[in-house]
Amino acid sequence: MNILGQSISKNSVLLGLFAVVTTGVIAGTYLSTRGLIQENIRHAEERALLEIIPKSRHDNSMLDDIDSVADSELLGLRETKKFYRATQNGKFVGAILPATARDGYTGDVDMIVGINLDGSIAGVRVLSHRETPGLGDQVDYKKSHWVDGFIGKSLSNPETSKWAVKKDKGVFDQFTGATITPRAVTGAVHRALLYFDANRATITGIAPKQEHSHE
């Protein structure tokens, strides 16, 4: 029994040492690669932002000029997210806002919406969705460039009643066999414009022009 007990104790010690060494190796590997992983994530985020507001239009790092937003009414957000500012020589150029279309065919459609200083759309990218492959998934830029149809549009172009897909008497195309997804995305982009307009001073950092009194 003493021999068996000694054997068990020895094996327990060896297993313990093995666990400690393994944990140390894993921890060391994580620490050595964590910086690289974070840098890769940062580059991926930056690439997505630069697709909407290219480097030729701004001289700041949008990843370092951020603020938080948690609006659920117009932006449809379910949690607090970041939005990004682009500036040129310290002057506001545009912002990239997060937005969620909660009325997608199979669930939420998460996107980012770039809006220029003049209130026009700089670009739109869908970040995640669960829409039907071959139909609703055409909102994904990898599948089609349908979202480019929003570029240059604003609250006055088109007028409010035309901010809809053509099936609903609007100006935006829908997909063959799929209307719900483009309808949801179109609505979300329009509401993002409404949010920008309602919060322009906070987003741009530019105070509203004061009306001059006349004598």
Mean pLDDT: 84
| Largest beta sheet: strand ordering | 1-2-3-4-5
What is the succession of H and E elements?
A: HEEEEEHH
Report how far apart the termini are. 108 Å
EC number: 7.-.-.-
Main location: membrane
InterPro entries: FMN-bd (IPR007329), Ion_transpt_RnfG/RsxG (IPR010209)
Modified residues (FMN phosphoryl threonine): 179
Report on this structure.
With 215 residues, the protein is α+β, with helices and mostly antiparallel strands. It folds into 2 domains: 1-52; 59-204, no CATH class. Helix content is 35%, strand content 18%. The protein contains 3 helices and 5 strands, in the order αβββββαα. It has a 5-stranded antiparallel β-sheet with strand order 1-2-3-4-5. The termini are far apart. The model is unreliable at 210-215 (pLDDT under 50).
Structural features:
215 residues; alpha+beta; 2 domains; five-stranded antiparallel beta sheet; 3 helices; 5 strands; disordered C terminus; cell inner membrane; cell membrane; phosphoprotein; membrane
